[in-house]
Amino acid sequence: MFKLLKPAVLAAALPLAACVPTAAPDWLVLPADPAFPVRPPRYSTATAGVQRFDVVDPKDWRELNRQVTPKAGEGGMEGMDHSKMPGMNMPGMGGKRDTGGR
After folding, report:
1. Concatenated DSSP letters for 16-39?
2. Per-residue CA distances from 3 to 12, 16, 87 (Å)
3. Vertex 70 angle, CA 66 and 76, to 5°
4. What is the DSSP string of 60-80?
5. What is the pLDDT of residue 60?
6. Residue 1 and residue 27: Cα distance in Å, rounded?
7. What CA–CA distance (Å, rounded) separates 53 from 3?
8. 5, 59, 70, 102: which has the fewest Cβ within 10 Å?
9. What is the DSSP letter of 82?
10. CA 98, CA 100: separation in Å to the nearest integer?
């Protein structure tokens, strides 16, 4: 069994051996340039730039919702001409919008 296995392993390994580079790349073998300018190391804290968030009392959720809702005239669908919007005036619907089967 081992006599049959050796030629099969050799036949599979020989094409793979052609893919192995013969020498290391130059950039890997060359020594570092000691004259290359390098900035000196400096100390910086691990928490530099971290913002502190303190615990606050809970706020009224109704007032928070009022602050973020759009005010009258700031946006939304009021005052828009819906007849110029695609899909709003479908032929055969008599000018009615599709309500999704409701």
Report:
1. HHTTS-SS--HHHHSPP-TTS--P
2. 15, 21, 77
3. 145
4. -HHHHHHHHSPPTTSSSSTT-
5. 93
6. 46
7. 73
8. 102
9. G
10. 6
DSSP single-letter state for residue 85: S
Are the beta carbons of 87 and 97 closer than 8 angstroms? Answer: no
| pLDDT tens per residue, range 88-102 | 665 655 555 556 655
- The predicted-structure confidence for 36-73, as pLDDT tens digits, reads as follows 888 899 998 999 889 988 998 999 999 999 998 877 76
Render the burial of 44-76: b for 16+ CB within 10 Å, e for the rest.
eeeeeeeeeeeeeeeeeeeeeeeeeeeeeeeee
Structural tokens at position 98 = 């599709």
